[in-house]
Amino acid sequence: MQEDVHRLGLAELKAAYAARSLDPLAATEAYLARIAAEDARLRSFITVAAEAARTAAEESRRRWRAGRPLGPLDGIPVAVKDNIEVAGLPCTAGTTAFRDRIPAEDAPVVARLRQAGAILLGKLNMDEGALGATGDNPVYGRCMNPLMPDYTPGGSSSGAGAAVAGGLCAAALGTDTMGSVRVPAAYCGVYGLKPTKGAIPGEGVVPLSFSLDCVGPLARSAAGLEIIASLLLEPLPRAFSTPVPSPSLSELRFGVPCQLDEVELTGEVRAAFNRFCDALRDAGATVAPVDLASWHPGKARRAGLLVSEAEGAAYYKARFGADLPGLSAAFASMLRYPEKAGVMRLVAAYETIETIRLDCLRAFADVDVLALPTTPQTSFPHASETPLNQADCTALANFVRGPAVSLPIPTEGALPAGMQLMAPPGDDRRLLRIAVAVDRALAARL
Amino acid sequence: MQEDVHRLGLAELKAAYAARSLDPLAATEAYLARIAAEDARLRSFITVAAEAARTAAEESRRRWRAGRPLGPLDGIPVAVKDNIEVAGLPCTAGTTAFRDRIPAEDAPVVARLRQAGAILLGKLNMDEGALGATGDNPVYGRCMNPLMPDYTPGGSSSGAGAAVAGGLCAAALGTDTMGSVRVPAAYCGVYGLKPTKGAIPGEGVVPLSFSLDCVGPLARSAAGLEIIASLLLEPLPRAFSTPVPSPSLSELRFGVPCQLDEVELTGEVRAAFNRFCDALRDAGATVAPVDLASWHPGKARRAGLLVSEAEGAAYYKARFGADLPGLSAAFASMLRYPEKAGVMRLVAAYETIETIRLDCLRAFADVDVLALPTTPQTSFPHASETPLNQADCTALANFVRGPAVSLPIPTEGALPAGMQLMAPPGDDRRLLRIAVAVDRALAARL
């Protein structure tokens, strides 16, 4: 049993605790052993909080033994991206500038995890300042994809993808500005949610872009993703908080944006996406094209990047001054760009995003969910050139401000591809239910 | 009968047509006569389309005579703000620069009105470029409040407020960037809706701010507002399109932002708002304070203004060049300001707005509706100084992107005040139903 702990999903861990075939301290020790054995290679952690984790695990064990666990996350070993504040642990945001930044309080998302009894194993590696998508951190090491030596786990929540996929934690929190939860989920073959903007508390996080950033969870199954997301999601406006019935795929309409043709998908991802759509149809769903006339993926991604850089610059310049000391030359140069580009180009970028948002909301009048690949390619070697289009398909959900789930499916090659489901803002709980149903249908068919 | 046509609401006009006590041509002639008699004083129209209106009214009369009207708007005389395109009529946006701009096609909102049989009387006066709130247009004349000589109707949909209140059209379309539908509705004692951003088509409109602009209707009753708004609202995302039951006020929770204390309300408006809240409580509703911690109304309004100016500048500079020929010196100077302010101040303004948006969405988890005055004061003489805080209470709904209705109530003085109800984005139809119920409760109590 013990040697398979790192493969268990959230519901399975809970069941094992309930059945007393495993306890939270033993599970935590198993994960800490995995980290000790594997992370010199994976570089998924920046900080490991072994002693605090053991103490929390003992408390959880007492609750389970007393038959009074705090809920489905009690005793679950998790880790969080290093731009999310945990009291007493460094919060580097992947940059030297914040190397000695030690917050006194937990971010609200971390506090919720702790209150639910989750065991915090440590803080996860990331692209510097959350701007990037390969996990090649210049200070804290090159994070690796556990599925293939020397391949990227994606980013910017690189350590979150690598640690969940590699069995170094059972679930993780990342952040997602243009795809930073979903890209590593796709490359590492796990599940990730970018929630509705504001639906998961964003306080206590080193920001990149106040308008696009979201905190989002990653897990090894659709069911696990739903369990951890349910804890983190804010209550919704009363008008929308009617309970969502479990969806039947045969009643759902999936839209595939025509403009996906403008994204250079690899043959492997294209084939996987076609099989994904076929499987949805086999399961009784309607899959239909939708026209997002204003969405030109490349132009849109560049607009999102300019906005992220401008909003990131506002944050870092206010803290460090215009010279941006402590930031790598590459990161600082990106943050300096918007002031060179000027007010009118920045306004044009915001307009591109707003126009796409309205187009997309209109599309949701006709379809329940948008379906598209998460990334145009599967993971690639760190040593090869980084494709520019990694966020072409993911940034769309950040622009719309709505939720998106990435779920993995096999390709004809050695690595998995991510498939993405997007729903209207506020529809997070419904989307998670749909993702579970889709995942089940895929498992039966692929 | 004929002399009272201009006092009838939308439902009453329809009933009169159905009963054959009035026909659309006679109603149109009555309105055209009102315009001829009153508008030299009110200056609410920039263009009157009398002949086209008569032709359309004859067609509507034929449909009514044949017992086949197109719906509740068939034969209703309406007018639209002069930044909304009507095929063949000048669309000046209140500026000399567009004096000779004659679009070939109707804006989608105008097309919908026509397809529903509405009679288009003409185009309405406005603040230049929709940036302002007094209706003192430097080119097309100083628009007057029909309730009090030489007083402002508010703006920027000045002609819409004045024409609806003065009985020069039965309903009107305005546009609202920070309050431009609701401020004139409040000052002129009529009803106005700012919809969810994107919920009423915004194409075919000369923009000011792509992120804040909305087209919205004005009418002389809450029921009339609901009738015209229902025609204009887009279908909603499927998840939200379940039918909304008629609300009972006793099941509703109204939130009053604590931060209203930072707005300098006149004693008259403060007293009216208190009576409004008392009447809601009398009707069985819960009225409770809510904390919008990030909302500092003055700072927020200035952020909205900078964003509006920057986004407006992008539009006008792209069309006319950086020198902005044909714009008044005052308007051009406002549009030039953001480039002087620079990228970082603009980003800070966008951040102020986004932070307020998220705070407000969170508040809607606890309350169904936010209640606040529409404007801090009632209408004032054109000759007196313009208060800076006119949009303090209205801009909030533009920031949130959700719907807001302004409804009039009497004050202790000679002029009415506007009371505002705000709901979460997408909740437009429910809010309109609530406004009708609130209006009925107020009529019984005030």
Description:
2 copies of one chain form a homodimer. Chain A has helices at 10-18, 24-42, 50-65, 108-115, 158-165, 182-188, 222-232, 267-282, 297-320, 329-341, 343-363, 395-400, 428-445, and strands at 45-48, 77-81, 119-124, 136-137, 141-142, 171-176, 191-194, 214-219, 253-257, 286-290, 369-373, 404-409, 417-422. Chain A has 13 helices and 13 strands. In chain A, strands 1-3-2-6-8-7-12-13-11-9-10 form an 11-stranded mixed beta sheet, with helices on both faces. A two-stranded antiparallel ribbon of chain A has the order 4-5. The first copy, chain A, is an alpha/beta fold and 446 residues long.
Strand order of the largest sheet of chain A: 1-3-2-6-8-7-12-13-11-9-10
Indicate the low-confidence ranges of chain A by residue numbers.
Answer: none
Q: From the helix content, strand content and strand pairing of chain A, which structural class follows?
A: alpha/beta
Radius of gyration of chain A: 20 Å
Q: Helix and strand succession of chain A?
A: HHEHEHEEEHEHEEHEHEHHHEHEEH
| Gap from first CA to last CA of chain A | 28 Å
What would CATH call the class of the largest domain in chain A? Answer: Alpha Beta
Quote the average pLDDT of chain A: 96
What's the helical proportion of residues of chain A? 25-40%
Strand content of chain A: 5-15%
Q: What is the H level of CATH, i.e. the homologous superfamily of the largest domain in chain A?
A: Amidase signature (AS) domain
From the 3D coordinates, which CATH architecture of the largest domain in chain A would you assign? Alpha-Beta Complex
Largest interface: A-B, 48 and 48 residues
Tally of discrete structural domains of chain A: 3
CATH topology of the largest domain in chain A: Amidase signature (AS) enzymes
Strand count, sense and closure of the main sheet of chain A? 11 strands, mixed
Count the helices of chain A. How many? 13
Instruction: Please provide the count of β strands of chain A.
Output: 13
- Which term fits the overall shape of chain A? globular
Oligomeric grouping of the chains: homodimer
